[in-house]
Amino acid sequence: MQMTNPHLAPxxxxxxxxxxxxxxLSKTYARNSLVALKGVDLTLHKGEFVSVIGSSGCGKxxxxxxxxxxxxxxxxxxxxxxxxxxxxxxDIGMMFQHATLLPWKTTIDNILLPIEMREGRQAARxxxxxxxxxxxxxxxxxxxxxxxxxxxxxxxxxxxxxxxLIAEPAVLLLDEPFSALDELNRDFMNMELxxxxxxxxxxxxxxxxxxxxxxxxxxxxxVMKPRPxxxxxxxxxxxxxxxxxxxxxxxxxxxxxHHIRSALGSEAFN
Amino acid sequence: MAQSQTEQxxxxxxxxxxxxxxxxxxxxxxxxxxxxxxxxxxxxxxxxGFVSAIILPTPGETWNDILFVGANIMRGEYMFEALVTTSxxxxxxxxxxxxxxxxxxxxxxxxxxxxxxxxxxxxxxDTMPKVAFAPLFIAWLGFDIxxxxxxxxxxxxxxxxxxxxxxxxxxxxxERMLFRSIGATRWQTLFRLKLPTGLPYIFTGLKIAAVxxxxxxxxxxxxxxxxxxxxxxxxxxxxxxxxxxFSLILYLSLLGLALYFTVVWAQxxxxxxxxxxxxxxxx
Lengths: 270, 283
Ligand SMILES: Nc1ncnc2c1ncn2[C@@H]1O[C@H](COP(=O)(O)OP(=O)(O)O)[C@@H](O)[C@H]1O
Ligand SMILES: [Mg+2]
Known about the structure:
The complex is a heterodimer of chains A (about 270) and B (about 280). Chain A is α/β, with parallel strands linked by helices and about 270 residues long. Chain A has 2 domains: about 1-90 and about 170-180 and about 200-270, P-loop containing nucleotide triphosphate hydrolases (Rossmann fold), CATH 3.40.50.300; about 95-170, no CATH class. In chain A, helix 8 (about 210-215) crosses helix 9. A 6-stranded mixed β-sheet of chain A has the order 6-7-8-3-9-10, with helices on both faces. A 4-stranded antiparallel β-sheet of chain A has the order 2-1-4-5, with helices on one face. Chain A is built from 9 helices and 10 strands. Chain A starts with 17 loop residues before the first strand and ends in a 6-residue tail after the last helix. With about 280 residues, chain B is mainly alpha-helical. Chain B has 2 domains: about 1-50, no CATH class; about 60-270, Orthogonal Bundle (MetI-like fold). The longest helix of chain B is centred in the last third of the chain and has 39 residues, at about 185-225. Bound molecules: adenosine-5'-diphosphate (ADP) and magnesium ion. Chain B: It is found in: Cell membrane.
């Protein structure tokens, strides 16, 4: 794997700083005694971009919600920055398939929402400059004072990126963030996401069901298998950064995609 | 409604979109047109004696009485006092209904206790014909305005309870998950997410309540006498003074419209983001 970023370099002990450490994680939904996850172990390191790919229903969202502290696991432990995750935390930024902007708040107030909830209105007002800078970062500089009804789907998702970043989280959890967008917008947003992550040395965990998207963005890919949801493979992606869309057509990219497709196996397509 | 049709044009068939006649005329002309038609039919059936004058007065008689009642109200005479009495009944009833309805709606929509223990009773009471409680309110509160206010509020409370509770359920799973993920407390989720999301529902309930509170106030005045418009209507009807009944009803409906459109105005003001699809943008 290419290591041009000094922050990704091993520390004195020869280990990169682990952000997330998850071991022995399982989840059984009590409602229908459904085993959604079983024996999941994974580690995310500082500055790493990791994707998890698997067929729909294999437990990806469940994994992400447990990592985010939105629901407790049945067994196992989730450590973030050395502290167990016991509920939602300000050092976790989340993004979902739907932007979910509040229609009665302007774009900038939507972005400030996490600050408003955790620290109050005054703190949110004080963070306005930061929100404006984030809007510039995603190319929405002129749209701070409009209401979400005037934003396109792609613009709304960009605003959701800003809302995720406003509290400067240590880790980004992304659940199929662009899967509701059309393909042109999705490619564009993926490149934006890469740029933002590289710029901020963000640690990111992306749930996706697009192999190409996972390969394009990730340093590593976890391949999940269903029934019960478990991690089957951990694949390093040895492509140089920054990645660009032209790489999709290279032979190496094709080989990696092929490898992952066979790793997913026939189970992914039924 | 646009209507399209094919036409012969220089030897080739072209498809032309045409605006229908009704799309080209302004609303007020359409309304005026229908009004003229209805009054015309009314005039014909009453002046030809097709319908007896006791059942239906002529438009002319009714118009004269409307002017008479209007003049009485303008001069601040007894009909004005009656209108004030009824207006106050409606206003107090509406405010009490909003207070109680909203509180019960919060209890039912936001707490498990309310949903499990309170809601079944509310549903049971709601299915009863509520005007049947009128004699009770009169027995408890007397023939004054209080018994009418109570009946009006009683009728108008339920739509507000139902609408508030439904509004609190309206926030989507995505929105709730967002609020949990950004560490919102229960109060924050209630006031910053669930209530704003529920406002369109709540206003729909208020509009239904605005109609109900009028019905309750007038029913109370029919059954319990007093100084209001309802009493005047009953009196006029018992004297077979149908033009008077008609004109009193007209002024009463102006009161109802005023209340209804106050709610509509408040909705436009407070739910500016939700351009709810209403027929013709009314209400
Ligand atoms: N709240 C829930 N209660 C019961 N079962 C659930 C719940 N949420 C998800 N599941 C089930 O758990 C499995 C994994 O779901 P999910 O994590 O959403 O998968 P993915 O995101 O990979 O599509 C699915 O079979 C789904 O039906
Ligand atoms: Mg999912």
